[in-house]
Amino acid sequence: MGERQEVKLLGTWYSPVVARAKIALRLKSVDYDYFEEDLVKSELLLKSNPVHKKVPVLIHNNKPILESLNIVEYIDETWNASGPSILPSHPHDRSQARFWSAFVDDKWFPTLIATTITKSENAKAKGMDEVGEGLLLLEDAFISISKGKRFFGGEVIGFMDICLGSFLVILKAREKLNGENILDKSKTPSLCKWANEFLADDTVKNVVPEIDRVVKFMREFN
C-alpha cells in the first residue's frame, strides 16, 4: 500500500480490547492517529459506531471497522505485506486460533468479570473455579498450538496471543489489588511463562497500560 493511508483509532487507555488494535497496528508498523474517548462519547465515535457506540473503532480512509478481533483481522489483511502475519497461514491453524479466541471472549473473560461484580461469595467461588478450569484448558491449548515456541503464534505474536494477552494487565492488576493468584505457575507453568514473554515484548509493553495505573483505576472505579 504505497500511498499515504489515513488511519485513526478511537479508544480508551484502560481498555484491553483497544490494546488489541494497538498491538496489531504496531506489529504491522502502521502509523495512525489515536483519539482518547471518555464517558462523554465523541461525535466521531457515535457516527462511526452508531449501533454499539463503543470502542475500539478503527477508521481507515474514512471507513470505520468495528469490534476488536475483526479490527485485528482487518489490519492483518490490509497491511499483509508489512510485518509478520497475525493469523496463521494454514486453514486448520486459523480455525484453532479463532476457536480459542472465541472461548476467551465468550466464556472465559466474561466469567472472570462476573466474579468481580457479584456480591455472592458462593457465586464468586464457583466462578473462580470455572476461571481456573478455563486456564487449564488454555494451558493445554498453548502447549499444542505453540509447539514449544514462545507464543501461540510461534516465535512472533499472533492472533491468539493478542486476544488472550490483551487481558493480562487486568488479570495481574486484579491479582495485585485483591492478593489473588489467578495465573498459578504450579498449575499452568507454560501459560505463566508465555504471559511474562508477552508482556515483556517491545510490541506490547509500549502500548498496554502499566499494571499499577490499572490497579489505581480499578480501586477508584470500585
UniProtKB/TrEMBL annotation:
<dbReference type="InterPro" id="IPR045073">
    <property type="entry name" value="Omega/Tau-like"/>
</dbReference>
<protein>
    <recommendedName>
        <fullName>Glutathione S-transferase</fullName>
        <ecNumber>2.5.1.18</ecNumber>
    </recommendedName>
</protein>
<dbReference type="GO" id="GO:0004364">
    <property type="term" value="F:glutathione transferase activity"/>
</dbReference>
<dbReference type="GO" id="GO:0005737">
    <property type="term" value="C:cytoplasm"/>
</dbReference>
<dbReference type="InterPro" id="IPR010987">
    <property type="entry name" value="Glutathione-S-Trfase_C-like"/>
</dbReference>
<feature type="domain" description="GST N-terminal">
    <location>
        <begin position="5"/>
        <end position="83"/>
    </location>
</feature>
<dbReference type="InterPro" id="IPR036249">
    <property type="entry name" value="Thioredoxin-like_sf"/>
</dbReference>
<dbReference type="GO" id="GO:0005829">
    <property type="term" value="C:cytosol"/>
</dbReference>
<dbReference type="GO" id="GO:0006749">
    <property type="term" value="P:glutathione metabolic process"/>
</dbReference>
<keyword id="KW-0963">Cytoplasm</keyword>
<dbReference type="InterPro" id="IPR036282">
    <property type="entry name" value="Glutathione-S-Trfase_C_sf"/>
</dbReference>
<dbReference type="InterPro" id="IPR045074">
    <property type="entry name" value="GST_C_Tau"/>
</dbReference>
<keyword id="KW-0216">Detoxification</keyword>
<dbReference type="Pfam" id="PF02798">
    <property type="entry name" value="GST_N"/>
</dbReference>
<dbReference type="InterPro" id="IPR004045">
    <property type="entry name" value="Glutathione_S-Trfase_N"/>
</dbReference>
<dbReference type="InterPro" id="IPR040079">
    <property type="entry name" value="Glutathione_S-Trfase"/>
</dbReference>
<feature type="domain" description="GST C-terminal">
    <location>
        <begin position="90"/>
        <end position="221"/>
    </location>
</feature>
<keyword id="KW-0808">Transferase</keyword>
<dbReference type="GO" id="GO:0009407">
    <property type="term" value="P:toxin catabolic process"/>
</dbReference>
<comment type="similarity">
    <text>Belongs to the GST superfamily. Tau family.</text>
</comment>
<comment type="function">
    <text>Is involved in the conjugation of reduced glutathione to a wide number of exogenous and endogenous hydrophobic electrophiles.</text>
</comment>
